[in-house]
């Protein structure tokens, strides 16, 4: 199992402008405690460990670790297999705290019950999405129907006005869509539709 001995050298990496591990500082042991005030480079060190974990090249002009007694440059991170697991603020921001508007990414799903609940949630989200789409389609259809109805009423009112207008006092001289709509509604609500039918004459 690969063992990280020390952070041998850092140049222009985070707050580290020119850092070299001093000879009188002991190498990392099995358990290590790194402490310091805010802004002293603890997060930078954890992120460097995170790059080892993800096998990504970190930022910085010069980043050198000593692993199993050999110095390893940052360009070699991609080929290393170091058993590192980093749980820092970056991990918390990505995996623990939700970040709107997206859902919180899961860390791990354990147990058949949890898996079935997750599948149920996915099905319900899909149904919700389909229902929302159907509602939007119905809303658009309703709006288009209302516009078409308004155009129909306006056209019929114009026909009545042109046909029945005359000089002098005539209520049809100012006949419009609003009156046509009201008259049509009254006809529909009438109990006896026969009284509204015109005779042949």
Description:
The protein is an alpha+beta fold and 201 residues long. The chain is built from four helices and four strands. Strands 2-1-3-4 form a four-stranded antiparallel beta sheet, with no helix packed on it. The longest helix is centred in the C-terminal third of the chain and has 53 residues, at 112-164. The termini are far apart.
Proportion in helices: 40-55%
Which sheet architecture does the biggest sheet show? 4 strands, antiparallel
Strand order of the biggest β-sheet: 2-1-3-4
Q: Calculate the terminal CA-CA distance, rounded to whole Å.
A: 107 Å
- Label the overall shape: rod-shaped
Can you count the helices?
A: 4
Round the Cα radius of gyration to an integer and report it.
Answer: 39 Å
Classification by helices and strands:
alpha+beta
Tell me, rounded to a whole number, the average pLDDT.
85
Give the ordered list of helices and strands.
EEHEEHHH
Range of strand content: 5-15%
Poorly predicted parts: none
Q: What order do the helices and strands come in, and which of them pair?
A:
Layout lengths: L3 E10 L2 E5 L21 H13 L7 E6 L2 E4 L15 H7 L16 H53 L12 H13 L12
Antiparallel strand pairs: 1-2, 1-3, 3-4
Helix pairs in contact: 3-4
What does this entry show, briefly?
The chain has helices at 42-54, 89-95, 112-164, 177-189; strands spanning 4-13, 16-20, 62-67, 70-73. With 201 residues, it is of the alpha+beta class.
List keywords for this structure.
201 residues, alpha+beta, 4-stranded antiparallel sheet, 43% helix
């Amino acid at each position: 199992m690969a063992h990280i001995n020390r952070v041998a050298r850092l140049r222009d990496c985070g707050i580290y402008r020119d850092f070299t591990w001093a000879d009188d500082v002991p190498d990392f042991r099995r358990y290590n405690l790194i402490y310091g005030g805010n802004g002293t480079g603890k997060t930078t060190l954890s992120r460097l460990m995170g790059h080892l974990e993800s096998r990504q090249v970190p930022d910085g002009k010069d980043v050198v670790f000593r692993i199993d007694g050999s110095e390893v440059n940052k360009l070699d991170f991609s080929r290393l297999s170091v058993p590192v697991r980093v749980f820092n603020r970056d991990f918390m921001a990505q995996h623990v705290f939700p970040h709107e508007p997206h859902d919180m990414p899961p860390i791990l799903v354990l147990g058949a019950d949890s898996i079935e609940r997750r599948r149920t949630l996915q099905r319900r989200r899909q149904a919700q999405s389909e229902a929302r789409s159907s509602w939007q389609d119905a809303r658009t259809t309703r709006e288009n129907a209302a516009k078409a109805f308004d155009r129909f009423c306006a056209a019929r009112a114009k026909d009545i006005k042109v046909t029945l207008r005359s000089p002098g006092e005539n209520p049809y001289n100012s006949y419009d869509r609003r009156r046509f709509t009201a008259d049509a509604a009254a006809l529909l609500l009438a109990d006896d539709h026969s009284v509204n039918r015109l005779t042949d004459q």
